[in-house]
Design brief:
Number of domains: 1
Order of helices and strands: HHHHHHHH
Structural class: mainly alpha
Distance between the termini: 31 Å
């Protein structure tokens, strides 16, 4: 929640033409909060999954999807902080990082009705977990195309990282060796 508050505050600073305030708050809180979100997300995955080891409803293969949300967030957000001197790249990378990590919540919200409707399959897994990210990336691309008649040069590599991580997560989910590795990572 703190990350969303910070992003909202930072967007408001830009809208109010307070770039000095935006930069000051960004330097003071941005990297530390991004690191805190990344560390707590990984710790939450580990703790929650570790607590479910051996229970009937535990599916260790899901760790691929959990990490598949966190890794692109960390990479894209880290890149955004390295590119603060390029505002267009900075804001797009921050938004794409947010898109990557928020899909975890949307998949919990929309996943069960989609899974109930479509049944179990690889396509269902994709549609349960990632459609909101796809829609937001499409909206971002549409915005750039409508207003600038081109995509920002970093959009395709960043969106490609998200899509590639999603596909890798799906592939891992179906690998027979992955659940055993996930259990070992969890200390089981």
């Amino acid at each position: 929640m703190g990350w969303l508050v910070l992003l909202t505050w930072q967007a408001a600073r830009v809208r109010l033409y307070d770039m000095a305030g935006h930069q000051r708050v960004g330097r003071l809180f941005g990297p530390a909060m991004a690191l805190a979100l990344t560390v707590t997300a990984v710790a939450t995955v580990w703790a929650a999954d570790h607590a479910r080891l051996g229970t009937a409803d535990f599916v260790p293969a899901r760790m691929s999807f959990q990490l598949g949300h966190i890794i692109p967030f960390a990479v894209l957000t880290g890149a955004a902080f390295l590119l603060v001197h390029r505002p267009g790249a900075h804001k797009r990378l921050l938004l794409l990082g947010l898109i990557a990590v928020t899909d975890a919540g949307f998949s919990r919200w929309l996943g069960v009705p989609i899974r109930d409707l479509l049944g179990p399959s690889a396509i269902t897994q994709l549609l349960v977990r990632f459609p909101v990210a796809w829609a937001m990336m499409a909206a971002m691309a549409g915005y750039d195309l409508a207003l600038r008649s081109r995509l920002h040069p970093l959009f395709l590599p960043a969106a490609g990282l998200i899509l590639g991580t999603e596909l890798l997560s799906l592939w891992l989910f179906y690998q027979p060796w992955w659940p055993g590795l996930a259990i070992r990572v969890l200390g089981g």
